[in-house]
Amino acid sequence: SSCAGPVLQGTSADNVRFHDDKSSYTGAHRDVGSPSSRPRTAATEVEAHAFGSGAEDLFQSFCGGARDLDGKGWAKLCKDAGLTGPRFSAADADVIFTTVVAKVAGRGAGRMTYPMFEEALTRVALKKGVEIGEIEDAIAGCSGPTKNATQA
Questions:
Q1: DSSP code, position 67
Q2: Is the dihedral of CA 52, 127, 142, 147 positive or negative?
Q3: CA angle 101, 107, 108 (to 5 degrees)
Q4: Phi, psi of 8, rounded to the nearest 5 degrees
Q5: How many Å separate Cα 91 from the centre of its chain?
Q6: What does the DSSP 8-state code read for residue 49?
Q7: 138 in helix, strand or coil?
Q8: E-only strand ranges, the chain
Q9: How far apart are CA 98 and CA 110, in angstroms?
Q10: What's 148's DSSP letter?
């Protein structure tokens, strides 16, 4: 009898699909990651509404002496003007700030100019599902930043 060497009997590996092979993806996950295949929504292309001079005065009052507004000032403006609520949270305000600033000034920029502010308010109206006039009324009713401090 001739010896042909050891006889190995084990399990063979299954054919597996690597996670980065998207050729067999179906449904909602099929187009994830390819920007050209994603439909552009109305939320990505918003035409800014022109607000009155009262809005510009309010914008300047929240800028704290600067010519533009940072994320903290934007969040305070949204809160003090009564824009935040059940349909528009502080997190939504932050997302809108980041979206508008990154679109115009580039990623990593951290300040909002007045034209960006007008676009951001338009996006707030879209997010809340209200007419732009309701946002104008809220802005008109805000007298500026409120100071909340405890008394000693």
A1: S
A2: negative
A3: 90
A4: -95, 130
A5: 8
A6: P
A7: helix
A8: 69-70, 111-112
A9: 8
A10: -
Residue with tokens 């034209």: 115
d(CA 63, CA 57) in angstroms, rounded, equals 10
Q: By three-state DSSP, how is residue 69 classified? A: strand
3 state DSSP class of 10 = coil
Say how far apart CA 117 and CA 52 lie, in whole Å: 12
Give one DSSP letter per residue of 64-100, joined into a string: TTSSSEEHHHHHHHHHHTT--BTTB-HHHHHHHHHHH
pLDDT tens track of the chain, all 152 residues? 567 778 777 777 777 666 666 666 666 655 555 544 444 444 455 666 677 778 888 888 888 888 899 999 999 999 999 999 999 999 999 999 999 888 876 666 688 988 899 999 999 999 999 998 898 888 888 888 887 766 66
DSSP state of 5: -
Length of the chain (residues): 152
